[in-house]
Design a protein that fits this description.
With about 180 residues, this protein is mostly helical. It contains seven helices and no strands.
Length: about 180
């Protein structure tokens, strides 16, 4: 159990750190003064917003994973594979973040980003369902009521990316800002 938690913490830390690499200026133009710098900072507002959203979303998935692991007593191969799938999806977040930054007016990047978030939630659902059906793996505190609460929370969590994907068909900027609802 401790090794999965440590690996997850490490992968989350790396993924969250990689996100910042997209925060950069176009190096072809020389900044000549404070006003010029401010204009450039305003120009990358969307880039910073996508970064902030992705950082907070990854943080929320880390918290959700951390919370679930309070209910895990021990792990088996099934838990290992579910968590490897979860971590694979975590490592895709910087990529989907990057394409949302690079292709801000296109719908597909927003849809891919949302699909990544939905799959992350699905892995957390799979994890809680898996351990919840195996009493030898979970703490007694993981009651059916707690599993139900986690289900409802993750389904609510999933509503935002689903809504964002739909809104992206009409307006990609609004679709991005919907992610602030997750907080």
């Amino acid at each position: 159990k401790g090794r999965i938690e440590a690996l997850t913490d490490g992968i989350m830390a790396v993924a969250m750190t990689i996100l910042v690499l997209d925060l950069k200026f176009d190096g072809t133009e020389k900044i000549t003064g404070d006003d010029h710098l401010i204009r450039h900072l305003v120009e990358i507002e969307r880039t910073f917003t996508v970064y902030l959203v992705s950082f907070v979303v990854l943080g929320m998935y880390w918290i959700a994973h951390h919370t679930q692991f309070h209910f895990v007593r021990r792990v088996d191969r099934g838990v290992l594979w579910i968590n490897l799938a979860f971590m694979l999806l975590v490592t895709v977040v910087p990529f989907t973040t990057s394409i949302m930054i690079d292709y801000e007016d296109l719908r597909i990047p927003v849809i891919l980003y949302g699909a990544n978030q939905l799959l992350l939630s699905a892995m957390l659902l799979a994890n809680v369902n898996y351990i919840g059906r195996r009493p030898a793996l979970c703490e007694p505190a993981l009651t059916p009521q707690v599993v139900g609460f986690i289900h409802r929370r993750l389904l609510l969590f999933s509503a935002v990316p689903a809504l964002s994907m739909f809104v992206a068909l009409f307006n990609t900027r609004t679709a991005l800002y919907l992610y602030f609802l997750m907080a």
